[in-house]
């Protein structure tokens, strides 16, 4: 979800690049799982998050929904998946010991926390969310070590491309709303859900590094289709 608010209100007032040091290291959380509970619908999943879940848990999008791992909600006119808070308002991936059972493939919002992203011009930076992590005395760590993603440059390219696609579709939905074309809005929302979440992206084991390219390619094709169909 794209939040419109001032950075000063929600951060320590600074922004960070991947090679900067930031006071975000929770020391392995040590039994705390506060940010895995009561998160409502806020842990929205991008196509890479869902691809990781489907591939590593060997299941379909529908099975993730059926098992109560994820749910669908409207976000700025789009239908997007988010991690579902289940019984006790707890993420279904948290085990009885209060540990994340999918730590190695956790979604990007979980991976970032307590950092967030702020988009500026053609790029983005990271910021430290104020009063979000309950642990005191967080220690310094390099941003890229904290985020701990493979191919950080490719990951960055994908994040920017996805962000700009979501903005583009959001603008398209706003103009369709003005023209009272609710059927087209539903069609776009379903098209995005099907193309980026429900449809599988099949890669053989040796080609896993191509996933970002594959999603970016889909974004380019989808933009063209939306342009041609809903202009
Ligand atoms: S609130 Fe902070 S310490 Fe607790 S689980 Fe989340 S990141 Fe870890
Ligand atoms: S996926 Fe893991 S880190 Fe993210 S909310 Fe669920 S249990 Fe917590």
What does this structure look like?
The chain is of the alpha+beta class and 231 residues long. It has helices at residues 7-10, 47-57, 61-66, 108-112, 143-147, 152-178, 182-198, 211-229, and strands at residues 21-25, 70-75, 78-83, 115-120, 123-128, 139-142. It has 2 domains: 7-147, no CATH class; 152-229, no CATH class. Helix content is 41%, strand content 14%. The two termini are 25 Å apart. Residues 26, 29, 32-35, 113-114, 133-135 line the site of one iron/sulfur cluster.
Secondary structure blueprint with pairings:
Blueprint: H1 7-10, E1 21-25, H2 47-57, H3 61-66, E2 70-75, E3 78-83, H4 108-112, E4 115-120, E5 123-128, E6 139-142, H5 143-147, H6 152-178, H7 182-198, H8 211-229
Antiparallel strand pairs: 1-6, 2-3, 4-5
Helix pairs in contact: 6-7, 6-8, 7-8
One iron/sulfur cluster (SF4) binds at residues 36, 43, 83, 91, 93-94, 100, 102, 106-107, 110.
Q: Could you provide a short overview of the structure?
A:
By secondary structure, the chain is of the alpha+beta class. The protein folds into two domains: 7-147, no CATH class; 152-229, no CATH class.
Notable characteristics:
two-stranded antiparallel ribbon; alpha+beta; single chain; 6 strands; globular; binds iron/sulfur cluster; about 230 residues
């Amino acid at each position: 979800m794209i939040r419109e608010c001032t950075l000063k209100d929600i951060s320590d007032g600074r922004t960070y690049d991947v090679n900067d040091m930031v006071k975000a290291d929770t020391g392995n959380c040590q039994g705390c799982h506060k940010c895995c509970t009561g998160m409502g619908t806020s842990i929205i999943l991008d196509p890479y998050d869902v691809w990781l879940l489907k591939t590593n848990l060997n299941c379909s999008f529908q099975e993730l929904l059926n098992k109560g791992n994820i749910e669908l909600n409207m976000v700025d006119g789009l239908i997007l998946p988010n991690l579902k808070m289940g019984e006790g308002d707890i993420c279904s991936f948290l085990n009885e010991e209060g540990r994340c059972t999918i730590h190695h493939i956790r979604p990007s919002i979980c991976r970032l926390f307590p950092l967030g992203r702020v988009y500026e011009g053609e790029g983005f930076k990271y910021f430290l969310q104020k009063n979000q992590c309950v642990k005191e005395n967080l220690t310094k760590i390099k941003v890229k070590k904290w985020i701990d993603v493979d191919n950080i440059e490719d990951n960055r390219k994908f994040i920017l491309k996805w962000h700009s696609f979501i903005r583009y579709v959001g603008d398209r939905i706003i103009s369709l709303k003005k023209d009272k074309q609710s059927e087209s809005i539903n069609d776009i929302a379903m098209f995005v859900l099907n193309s980026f979440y429900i449809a599988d992206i099949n890669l053989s084991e040796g080609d896993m590094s191509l996933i970002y390219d594959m999603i970016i390619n889909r974004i380019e094709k989808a933009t063209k289709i939306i342009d041609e169909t809903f202009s």
